[in-house]
Write a structure and sequence with these properties.
By secondary structure, the chain is an alpha/beta fold. 38% of the residues lie in helices and 13% in strands. Helix 1 links the parallel strand 1 and strand 2.
């Protein structure tokens, strides 16, 4: 799951899925999103795609 708020990260955790975050929402800092449990934090969706998300999360596949 991709989100931009601590609530998105919390909802993903409650659903049992990993969440990555983007900073484009502007309401939360990298540190806040990481503290909430984000698996990774990207500057924006373009950076997320450049990192080859979601493949980077499953390097053995």
């Amino acid at each position: 799951m991709v989100g931009d708020s601590v609530w998105d990260i919390q909802a993903a955790k409650e659903a049992g899925v990993r969440a990555v975050a983007v900073l484009t929402g502007g309401a939360f800092s990298r540190a806040e999103l990481e503290e909430a449990g984000a698996y990774a934090v990207y500057e924006d969706c373009a950076a997320l795609l450049e990192a080859e998300f979601p493949e980077e999360l499953n390097p053995s596949e």
